[in-house]
Amino acid sequence: MSYIDLLRESAKESGNIVCMGLDPVLSVLPASEEPVRDRIGSYFSELFRRMRLEGVAPAAFKPNIGYYQRLDNPRAEDFSGSLALVDVLELLETYFPGIPVILDSKRGDIAKSSENYASEAFDAWGADAVTVSPYMGHDSVLPFAYEDKGVYVLNRTSNPGAAEFQDQNVLDKVDEKELYPLYRAVAHHIAAWSSEHPGIGAVVGATNPKELGDIASIYAGRDIPMLIPGVGSQGGSASDVMAMMKSAGYELDLSRINSSSGLTHPWKKGNAPEDWLEKCMAAIHSLIEEASL
């Protein structure tokens, strides 16, 4: 199955376009004497089990590799964080088969190095898609264009500092008629790459509605997936995002609206409260309802 078909099928089966970020923060998990790997595994196992019992599933999952590998101590031969990610990926295969997994690693390097990073994501970790940076150009991005896999290129991100570079006006080499903000030039390149390599898409933040609308209009009518972070704790609204995409004529089932901490630890700071599972489930139900098809 192609990545485009996988997105459409998982959206149809789940009835929504939510992407659930899976970024463990030890300081907010329930207090425990378990080793790191077991503590993370136990937490997500209990959460996923409840989700299955309640018949709730997002349309994608997105673990950020940095949250796991920061828990490794390689020089002491301790790979607890990486092994916890292995456990989480296996739990996803058990509880949510057919739901795409996006490995958020934001790679991108010279061509040969990108080939290695692509193999890391797809061959070693078995991810369905990966996030990459466009800064070094096509020979840095295209090694990730595996058959039947997804590639989300950073386009207009949700962080406050994004405007420092992404809003700068440049002469777009794809369309040299006028100056465009850099994010529009990147969007034109993404559209060109995706025409030859289906599965290439874009990361576009929900915190910048104007830019999101501009980009969605560029991708409208094309099979270009969008990964949309910034909903929830960063202030974006899923309903506003969906209205914007509909207005632009973009196919909703190719997009994924991501929330991470807002779903997995909505209390943000301190050890998890006794009713942590209910708080997580309430947040998951709320976002899925807001982003339902």
What does this structure look like?
It is built from 12 helices and 10 strands. With about 290 residues, it is an alpha/beta fold. It has one domain: Aldolase class I (TIM Barrel), CATH 3.20.20.70. The strands form 2 sheets. An 8-stranded parallel beta sheet has the order 2-1-10-9-8-5-4-3, with helices on both faces. Helix 8 runs parallel beside helix 9 and helix 9 runs parallel beside helix 10. The protein is globular and about 60 Å long. The mean pLDDT is about 95.
Sum up the structure in keywords:
293 residues; alpha/beta; TIM Barrel; 8-stranded parallel beta sheet; two-stranded antiparallel ribbon; 12 helices; 44% helix
